[in-house]
Amino acid sequence: MSKIGTLLFLFALFAVLPSTAQDRLFVSSETPMIDGIVSAGEYSLEIEMRRAVLYVNRTEQILSVALQSEFDGWVAVGLGSTRMDQASIYIGYVESGREVFAAELGRGHAHDSAPVVEPAEYRLTDSDEGTLLELSFPAEAIIPPGASTLSVIAACGKRDNLDSYHAVRKGLEIDL
To answer: Does residue 40 surpass a pLDDT of 70?
Structure first.
């Protein structure tokens, strides 16, 4: 390959990387259905984690978040921080077909009952693919006016309870 060909290849490669490597949440016109199923293209942003996928969507009025874990245990999404401490933690699992869900405040490396923004809707499902948590909120209750990022922590565990240690965890800032 010639030097010009190599330069053109590298230019094309780097032109594509920022759009695929960056976590940016644009305002969408479509709102996901909070039904315990994530369909292809339902969420505008998908973030791959080790053994899980975080999905996020935002319209002018609604923020929707889902976490699909490969594990059969608990799943959790925290909003407002990239760490557990001071994040609003939404955590749950499915046991014998029954949804077990809690909305709590992160305190240090734990979480407990304290006032947090309640989701407008949530749904937990357990299937051969693992456990899925879907949530929706009024966007203005989670994203302050003028905010440029959304702080999120996502985690999942291998047990059906609300307090065992996570198997996977990821904290991130999503550009708005």
So the answer is: yes
